[in-house]
Amino acid sequence: MNYTYPMDETWSTNEIIDVVNFFSLIEQAYEKKVRRSDLLSLYRRFKEIVPSKSEEKQLFEEFKRSSGYSSYHVVKKARESEEAFISIK
Prior knowledge:
By secondary structure, the chain is mainly α. It has a single domain, classed as BH2638-like (Annexin V, domain 1, Orthogonal Bundle). It has four helices and two strands, in the order αβαααβ. It has helices at about 15-30, 35-50, 55-65, 70-80; strands at about 35, 85. Helix 1 (about 15-30) runs antiparallel to helix 2. The mean pLDDT is about 95.
């Protein structure tokens, strides 16, 4: 892992932790598998911290450029799936 997680310096420590946990699950969805309910729960928390759709897209793109992982595709798959676990292979 030679990349950083996107963040905003105006976020509180707890918000930073929650956003990092969200992006960490995105990473795990590509490398292993993640519990769908955990991912959706952390995405809901991410949306509390980042309610703006444009800011969400910007952070997702920043993470994708840095890591190669598409947060959008993982969240989309989690929303559309009925499976308990999801992974991107």
